[in-house]
Amino acid sequence: MSGARPLRALHVHSGNMFGGVERILETLACGGESSRMTSSFALCFEGRLTSALARCRASVTDLGPVRTTRPWQVARARAQLASLIERAQPDVVLVHSAWSQALLGPAVHGTGRRLVRWLHAPDPGNRWLELAAARVRLDLLICNSRYTDEASRARFPGVPREVCYAPVPVTVAPDGDRAVVRASLQTPADAIVVALAARMEAWKGQRTLVDALSRLRDDPRWHCWIVGSAQVTAESAFVDELNRRIDSLGLASRVQLLGHRDDAGRLLASADVYCQPNDGPEPYGLSFVEALAAGLPVVSTRLGAIPEIVDDTCGVLVAPRAPEEVASALSQLLGDPERRRRLAHGARARAAALGDVTRRIDALADALAKS
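The structure assignment produced for this chain is given below.
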């Protein structure tokens, strides 16, 4: 684009869940200092994302509930989306899932606007939705990591593609906040806090972390905060299982499941080490960049896009599903404050290189303008 005005992007999404994708949308809504792109949003369900976008004073259009079993809802939402596009005249429309591509993508084609899918994970989700989405032509695929790019090539033959890392805002806790946060959680001021903040999905590695900490039960220095709440039935069952595991291992006094927290950034800034030992491949991993931005050394596994984020300047990577290796890495960091300080310094530098909001939004604008 010429630079006479910012590129106008319309993001179409379901809006009924909140995770990494929704945090990206919230960051785009707030926009940083970028003058290259503006974002507006069309959502089908009200929820936490709607509230987050409202706090950023973003333009949000409610398309109404859309369920695959109710074709009249699909037809209504498509008509509303087409009308919105005609009024708002976006340069490009982005969908963030097979669901929105399949159900709402056809309305975009009718307006002549370019349709882009931001691919947040390489693995196909619901088979039928992916098959339906494949019938809706894309003008561009934005991949959230090199891992996603390489792992998804067979699924999107002939579609132009770009790799764009997500923008990640840096949260800086105020001076003295560390002591306040720890006191509020009955955590000793001098404890070495190991934190994990992620969706309560088993592949995120919470179980592996607990098993690793059980091997360090005789080391009195550590305490653990696990942040995240269940959003679907399977996640609720996993939380229950994790609580039972913590109790059975005798760790209930030192491992806290904190549930959903709006102040996750404050918690990370008040911890000492971030440990998310994934059992499955991470398509990108905003939580890792957020932890690095908080100055936390990261312990994780060599899966998916994690090696694109964490290198030996800021963390330690071990084999997946190996709690003994996680325990060894944590033990070394517990006993070496100088190494923790060195990795913390590297963590902040790494986060600045990866997630700078203005730089990442500008790069996304460039990629979209080329499509």
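Interim note for the steering committee: The mean pLDDT is 94. The two ends are 10 Å apart (CA to CA).
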